[in-house]
Amino acid sequence: MNKDLDIAQKATMQDIRKIADQLGLSEDDLELYGKYKAKINLDVFEKFNENKDGSVILVTAINPTKAGEGKSTTTVGLGQAFNKIGKNAIIALREPSFGPVMGIKGGAAGGGYSQVVPMEDINLHFTGDIHAISTANNAVSAIIDNHIHRGNALEIDPRRITWNRVLDMNDRALRGIVVGLGGTAGGIPREDQFDIAVASEIMAVLCLANNLEDLKTRIKRIVFGYTYKRKPLTIGDLGIEGAITLILKDAIKPNLVQTLENTPALIHGGPFANIAHGCNSIIATNMGRKLADYVITEAGFGADLGAEKFLDIKADQAGFTPSAVVIVATIRALKMHGGMSKKNLTEENIDALMKGTENLDKHIDTIKQFGLPYVVAINEFVTDTKTETDALANYLKNNGHPYSISRVWEKGGEGATDLAKQVINEIENKENKFKKMYEKDDSIKEKIEKIAKKVYGAKGVEFTKTARRKLRRFKRRGWEDLSVCMAKTQSSLSDNPRLLGRPTDFTITVRDLKPAIGAGFIVALTGDVMTMPGLPKRPAALDMDITKEGKVKGLF
Fold it and tell me: At residue 106, does pLDDT exceed 70?
């Protein structure tokens, strides 16, 4: 069986200017990054202002397992399938974070014959957007510490600085550090920590901004800490919002690439869905809506995380109503949710499969609560048996769930033409009753409780003493009308990663709350979810190499 990298390296890519031409873009609309990558200038919005907005189709999934679900692969394959059946479609994805690429999770370029290319570039630095975000974030940190060192006119309390440094790498050793050592010339000593770059609020505001001016406004209102009297301090108080926005002047422009079948793809922004809002940029999605009739996009992890945030945060701030949702599931992953271990997944087990459908049912229920048409995509693996496939198909049919068998890894767009037709049928024939999971006027506590109960299936929410104190403070500061961004394990509907399937009678524990005022939401930290991942015992980096001719090896 060919590996993803082998397939990608044998691809015949078109000059990116030809891909742009499919969309009605000229070379003047592009900033070329070699022959196969380009950034799109933001004045394209004005050029295509009169175009009708295309439909947005969200691809989500069940809770991810080590067996793999193939959400990004399905997104790419579905975009290719739309074009195969004669529909004008574009794909919108997130950028891969370098840390997971070198760790265990892998990249975010799809797989098999449903990949975006050049796959190596996309997974390794790409056009430098995430590095620009890291630089902007760490520039804020440097200026905060310099301000304190130079007299601290703002009366910044070093014990209450909430702004962390970032690195686009999994590095557990940086979860807790001390800065300012080395004597009087080294600054003021204080505790600090690193987050992974995609957890930075700079990443969130880049992905939620509508334009450059909106980006600067959002950066200005980011809270980085508090005074000795506990007054919130913003980047605007430091007077550096212009400089930070300047660092991001190129990163804000969406990146244009192509799939193996030369379908256009926009890849832009990459916040994690377990610690941030998990969606590609509003700018890329809205640009796609002007350039094509259908935008096929995805949100991180399962529907309890990425999809909930896409629908409650991104769609709300972007001002569009999604047209349909595709929920990806695999027989392998459902068997894991039904109690099977990964090493036994090649064995046929109908009982475990049927037990695992409880997880799928909850995610279907969540999308139905949002009032959106949906289709279940059964992402086929070579180890699936006909008996298992028939059992799952009959289960979905008997329960009235639209579904399709997806073979996009093996067959590319051809493997999802039925899925594409089903999605279009749902859009055209099912009523769209889209509504958010909570109301803007709900308190922060009520928003968290609604998500926990309605999306996760929890019986209730417990708030630690720290969280309860911050609820009171945030209310006094007028932050009650902000959205909520839940930071929770992706592996379970609960905040315990070991509870697979559809757990019941559980409680979500909110241990802390963090304001992300620039992004427009409050982050609720649950369980033991961390904002700086660590590397596994055997990192993927050990398999990677490059030949003397410059050919990449071992990248998935």
Answer: no
